Predict the structure.
Amino acid sequence: MIIDCHGHYTTAPKALIAWREAQIAALANPSAAREKGSIRISDDEIRESLEGAQLKLQRERGTDLTIFSPRAAGMAHHIGDAIASLHWSQHCNDLIHRVCTLYPDNFVGVCQLPQSPGVAPDNCIGELERCVTELGFIGCNLNPDPSGGYWTAPPLTDRYWYPLYEKMVELDVPAMVHVSSSCNPNFHATGAHYLNADTTAFMQFLTADLFKDFPILRFIIPHGGGAVPYHWGRYRGLAQDLKRPAVVDLIRDHIFFDTCVYHLPGIELLLKVVPADNILFGSEMVGAVRGIDPETGQYFDDTRRYIEQVRFISDADKQKIFEGNARRVYPRISRVRAVTT
Amino acid sequence: MIIDCHGHYTTAPKALIAWREAQIAALANPSAAREKGSIRISDDEIRESLEGAQLKLQRERGTDLTIFSPRAAGMAHHIGDAIASLHWSQHCNDLIHRVCTLYPDNFVGVCQLPQSPGVAPDNCIGELERCVTELGFIGCNLNPDPSGGYWTAPPLTDRYWYPLYEKMVELDVPAMVHVSSSCNPNFHATGAHYLNADTTAFMQFLTADLFKDFPILRFIIPHGGGAVPYHWGRYRGLAQDLKRPAVVDLIRDHIFFDTCVYHLPGIELLLKVVPADNILFGSEMVGAVRGIDPETGQYFDDTRRYIEQVRFISDADKQKIFEGNARRVYPRISRVRAVTT
């Protein structure tokens, strides 16, 4: 079985986007009523949005189950306030739940959190709990920069985040560290902001004792870990110079990289330097890069192909990357889908 | 001959730091006189600061000439105003000039610019011109984020920067894109901010037509290009999706990566995906990572060793990386040091 740990609902029906646009328009008028309202989307519209996209690509690529969350760029926590973020997050998460209910063999949910700049993440605990205990979700996406490119929140290792971590530990769910769109013109979202956040989070974890306080807290750093595996020597050296634990010890039970790296040499590097136990198969499909690589004739984001081509790791390690590690990092997945052999 | 394109004067005599500390203390008192003042450092103090560090390592590692600039983390453009930045930059650049005068076979200068948050970079033209025409410098370090981690300046492709680029073109000098220390607690300088800036700048260049306006403008993106070579497939795919020029065409005459990547698999990746014409040998010695890698018994930042171990590129390509490309990107270097064969 192949579990793709990184899929967003980038093809959601237009009614979802229309609701968000209306919400944003209403925010311009502070005296307008702040109703969550409802969104009318039929089951057929949901099926249609997936059949020609994620489901088709799952079949074509031979992957089975996608850990599925709302569109990352759509979270846009920097827009509006905490109430707006909550309403929007609930709608997005409810739609993911409908996807998972319609296609329980193909999708399992991860939630968007109702973060908002300057608002302590305590406000996310209720929605996380609702999604996990009522909707059967298995994790959350955590945005280290709700400001959308100005980085005004405290580092992820600050006690500011601890109440949310306590709930994650209680529910035994991990978080994927994932920023949203950037409203800072310096940062292209998928070409810079996403990768920068991955790199930034890793170095925050390296320089603090967060995991002493939370011995079972787990994070997935997506997009192959940003710049981290490419600079593995730099991080090993910095950890040594700073008298911090060795990088392999830091990550062992806590930090996991996905395989959203869209060329063979990058995947080879990842698999060469990062222990197989800390890598989860992911493709970000349908996501940041949608084209076909003229050099290979295959989709850039068909990351399974790259991994299959690597000869220097064992089949047992590949099995961990494709399935076993996801089950370990997201233990609630096994309540949804049994282990295959 | 081996030219190291990336060295900072991280071992400068204490009197330099003392001057800066006094300047910062004086900034707290706005009514204090704003004198540039002078710094007393003897030639022997300069020799002493280098003999046991950069010069010793040049000899041990068999490198010849270092393109040498003030300490990057020390620039701290976010401290004080443009006048403070100018005084500080002039002192730092003058000291680099003394180093290059004392050791003309070992060092050639690159200058710090007197950038300041919210101040258009026109204010840097005078110091760039002074350093190039009077002090014999061959390039500059350009900070894309003078705010020190809040990213409040326009992207490097904005017309805001054009007057400085016009002067760079006129003088035929390149810029290394290099941020300074971070005053944003999210970003560790050498473990996150530096690499993020590299990644960010590359994506800015990819999404704009800067090089149509400046056909001979050249940038070095240090630290192996941040996350870029590791995500080469992502960038090739994004360029294609966005209908931008192919990445190899974008970089050909304009963007160059150094080899400050501190492990063999990272260097192998860099040399595999980036054309040899766009790679310049660099070590950042004495810099971000100062220890010895217990896995190899060698210094992490002894990057020559990694390149020498790579078998899949030709000796001719290695010669370009070690010398030829630096002479092409920094043409003024050949006024200082003749080509060896």
